[in-house]
Each structure stands twice: as structure tokens, then as C-alpha cells.
Amino acid sequence: MAPVTRPSTSVTLGKAINMGLRKAMEDDPKVLLMGEDIGKLGGVFRVTDGLQKDFGEDRVIDTPLAESGILGTAVGLAMRGFRPVCEIQFDGFIFPAYNQIVTQVAKIHSRSRGKLPMRIVIRVPFGGGIGAVEHHSESPEAYFSHTAGLKVVACSNPVDAYWMIQQAIRAEDPVLFFEPKRRYWEKAELDTSATPGPLFVTSVVRPGDDCTVLAYGPMVKTSLQAASAVEAEGRSLEVIDLRTLSPLDLDPVYDSVRRTGRCVVVHEAPTNLGLGAEIAARITERCFYSLEAPVLRVGGYDTPYPPSKIEEDYLPDLDRVLDAVDRTFAF
Q1: Which of 25, 122, 171, 250 is the most buried (most CB within 10 A)?
Q2: Do 324 and 183 lie in a common domain?
């Protein structure tokens, strides 16, 4: 008997999100999209291209340039049973909506004793590496991961992007969905008939024995490159894609660190008071007697994001990850 083959196609991460949004809108008429230039233009990264044409202006809504208004409107829509998906055009533009997200979106479900769930997804293209100007290359995920009442996830590849956006839209809690904008054009084979795993779980993307490397979003690819680079030296890195930043799913991380005895956490955001610090603290609490070296962090510097001409000096790269791996073996 011939093997059964599943339909798959090679798609970019941006296209995968587009396909996931389309599927969610087909499945549930209460799903609608809101954002600046997402309709006729299809978004500045063309992630929503074609959706307004197919679903109409009542479900794919071009909004004014007012993030606080977008989220305030989404709160009202969620109260009426809709599932709004709000696009923040660039990461640094989210702060005008910070009040709405932190004081309203995160708290109304609890404040109403469960009567008013906030089924809102906030899509945030984040991170640098695209040669953009100020406020277009930031990594604000720690602000929202710190806020009780919000769920925060970050995709790193087209397959996860396709499934995770649909799962986020179906979730009963508000979800901030961080998209690594410099990975929008990278491709992978996507099987839309597959069965995805749960949304709020980490994933071991490369098994290894000597050191655990944790990353999410754009830094997953960099960490995988580091694992390939050290293989020639006889070292084996286990690379874990965190995927979910709040809630953190660290049981697989603890299992890995107990085997390897070493851990490096990588993210683009500044290391100062970043997610890496919280993760390092939890690993130290749970795996202290298994550690052969301190948990090391690789991230952005404690400075505002620089002009694009020097952003490559700011962003964590392969050399900085490899340096941290070397340092953890030096203990």
C-alpha cells in the first residue's frame, strides 16, 4: 500500500500568519481584525494582505492612527462577544495603548468575576534587524509578561505561527502575540492538516547533552546556528524554543538543565530586568544542585535601541551566543 501523504507547502512566516488569520475568520464570524493600514494596504508587512477584500470592511477594519482607540474599541467588542484581533503596526507603537492593555484588557475578566472575558489578541511585530528607525525595533515583551491577566506568546517559525495565531484567537484570555519581524520572510514546509500541540508549552527544537540554550522569537534561529557551530568542536547544545512567555512552561527546561548542568538564555530585549533574569532565577531555585555553572544571559544592552547603522553591534548574534556557551564551559 502506498504511503499516505499530507498536503504541505513552503510558506513564509508572514504568510503563515495570514493563512492562520484567514482560517480563524472562516471558522468563527465573531473574529474580526483591527489595525492601522491592515485593510486595503494589507499591513506594512503585508501580513493581512487580501483579507479585507475577502471578508469585507466590517471584519477587517482600517483604524485611525490611535493605538489607545484600537484597544479601547476592542474592549467594547469583546464585551459584546466578539473576538477582535488588533495589530500594533510596530512594537514601539504599543505604548499609547499600554493603559488600556494593563488596566482594562488584563483586569476586566477578574473585575467582573468572570462575567466579561476579554477574548482579545494583540499582534505585535517585535525585535530589530530590519534597518528601521526609532520605535520600530523594540522588544517590549517583559512589560506584558509581568502583568497578571495577560497571556504572552512568541512564534519563531512559520509552522508555529500558523497554528499559534489560531489557538490564541480561540483562547478565553487576552493574548499578546509577538511576531519576529525580521523572520517574516523565512520559509518552512507547512502541513495544514497536521495536529498542533498546545499553545502554552515550550518545544525542544534540537536535542543535546552538554548545555541548554533557551530562546524565543528571532533568537531561536540564532541559537540553532550556535548549536551547529559548536558541533564541530564535539559539543552538543540542546536548544529550547520557549514559545510561551506568560505563563512560562519551564518543566521541560528543568529536565534539560538537570541533564546538561549548564544553561544560556538568549533574547533581543535588554538583559537588565528582562525575562532571562526571571528564568535564570527559577532555574537556580529548581536545579541548583545540578548546575555546573551559573545560568548566563545574552541579550540587548541597557540602552535605548540605537540607530540602524549600528544595530548589528547592539543585537545578540552568533558570536555573543557562542561566547556565552564558552564561558559556561569554563566554570
Answers
A1: 122
A2: no
Q: Can you tell me the mean pLDDT for 222-232?
A: 96
- Residue-number span of the structural domain to which 240 is assigned: 203-330
Sheet holding 83-87, edge to edge: 60-62, 31-35, 83-87, 121-126, 175-180, 151-154, 244-246
268 belongs to a structural domain: yes
Unique residue bearing C-alpha cell 508555529: 160
Longest dimension (CA), the chain: 61
Mean pLDDT of 212-222: 98
Whole-number Å distance between alpha carbons of 197 and 244: 13
**Taking the model in full, what pTM does it have?**
0.95
Using an 8 Å Cβ cutoff, are 158 and 16 in contact?
yes
Task: Using the structure block, give the residue that is written with the C-alpha cell 514601539.
Answer: 92
Question: Do both 38 and 135 map to the same domain?
Answer: yes
Count Cα neighbours of 149 within 13 Å in the Cβ-side half-sphere. Answer: 21
Catalytic residues: 136
Residue among 214, 203, 207, 142 at smallest CA distance from 178: 142
Sequence-distant (6+) residues with CB within 8 A of 319 are: none
Confidence of residue 5 (pLDDT cuts 50, 70, 90): very low
What span, in angstroms and rounded, lies between the C-alpha atoms of 313 and 59? 42
